[in-house]
Amino acid sequence: MDTNAHTHRTLGRSGIDVSPLGFGCWAIGGEWSTLDGQPLGWGKVDDDESVRAIRRALDLGVTFFDTADVYGTGHSERVLGRALGKRRAEVVVATKWGNLFDERTRTLNGQDASTEYLREALTASLARLDTDYVDLYQFHLSDAHPEHGARLRDACEELVREGLIRAYAWSTDDPARAAVFAEGKHCVAVQHALNVLQDAPEMLALCEESDLASINRSPLAMGLLAGKRQGPQDSGDIRSTPPAWMRGFTTEGADADWLARVDALRSLLTSNGRTLAQGALAWIWARSPRTVPIPGFRSVEQAEQNAGAMEKGPLSADQLTEIDRLLER
Fold first, then answer.
1. How many other C-beta atoms are found inside a 10 Å radius of the C-beta of residue 110?
2. Which of 28, 81, 241, 301 is deepest in the core (most CB within 10 A)?
3. What does the alpha-carbon distance between residue 123 and residue 40 come to, in Å, rounded to a whole number?
4. Domain residue spans of the chain
């Protein structure tokens, strides 16, 4: 695997090159919710601004965009497809499947881990993205049974043979589940949570052993590492009533213990002229040459700040050691 974090990284054993930074497209999907009204988006969005931000990221060297069919119940894929337009061939597009949703009511309404639904979901994503192939197709049900995973892995191999996808991955925080997909020839990555407050040594070890890329969601800890003080969120923001799996937030805003850890790291992460967010991304690159963090964005300004991290590259080994000391791990 390529170890030059400054210019590009390779998705596992695929030979697919990407920028060391990807852009996560969850937030640009806009508002959506569970059937009982729990928000699942990040608040209101301006689609024109999202399109401008994606195109600005492209101009700044970002070539990897990660979305999911369920983000904004299809809306994120549509916005990404519109933004890329004729530049589709310049980028690596990753999306996900497994959740059921209603685009009309913008609600999540179930899950489907069947091989039949896999093909149906891909067909719908291709239409929304306005493309005839997906570079990286990811199974979105993190806790699905490993037997489902094995069947879906084999079905994904068939999709590769047909040219509908180039490679596939499982979005899961469980190394044992990721290992099931890793047995497939064209499994090239695992998407999992990783940030300076939430290390994932077992998953990174699996990536090393199985020659997988480590695609990192929550690289800024849902905004805690973005540099803004986090108070109570807007009602359409998932952080306003955080679900059980979301770490670092309460209904009153950011968790005090997590904020204290951010404050302990602030001066180190912002050294060398980095913003706090850029320092958090630099930690991830230093953590492993396989990592590709995918911070979210909703504006050109956020796109520029995130992309600016690439110019400064990873933290040093000494800085990594000092961070572990500060966090007592």
1. 9
2. 28
3. 24
4. 9-224+280-314
Strands (DSSP E) contained in 67-186 are: 92-97, 99-102, 107-111, 134-139, 165-171
Q: How far apart are CA 270 and CA 322, in angstroms?
A: 14
CA distances from 187 to 16, 21, 283 (A): 12, 20, 26
Distances in whole angstroms, Cα of residue 314 to Cα of each of 9, 64, 233, 265 = 13, 18, 31, 16
**Max intra-chain CA distance, the chain:** 52
pLDDT truncated to tens, each residue of the chain (329 aa)? 444 445 789 999 999 999 999 999 999 999 999 999 898 988 899 999 999 999 999 999 999 999 999 999 999 999 999 999 999 999 999 999 999 999 999 999 999 999 999 999 999 999 999 999 999 999 999 999 999 999 999 999 999 999 999 999 999 999 999 999 999 999 999 999 999 999 999 999 999 999 999 999 999 987 889 876 554 455 666 566 655 555 666 566 667 788 899 999 999 999 999 999 999 999 999 999 999 999 999 999 999 999 999 999 999 999 999 999 999 99
CA distance 225 to 214: 20
Answer positive or negative: Cα dihedral of 218, 219, 221, 223: negative
Give the residue carrying structure tokens 């007592």.
Answer: 328
Q: What is the pTM of this model?
A: 0.94
- Structural class in CATH, domain 9-224+280-314: alpha beta
Pick from 44, 47, 43, 42: which is nearest to 79 by CA?
47
DSSP track, 79-97: HHHHHHGGGGGGSEEEEEE
> DSSP string covering 32-82, please?
-EETT--B-SBS---HHHHHHHHHHHHHTT--EEE--TTTTTTHHHHHHHH
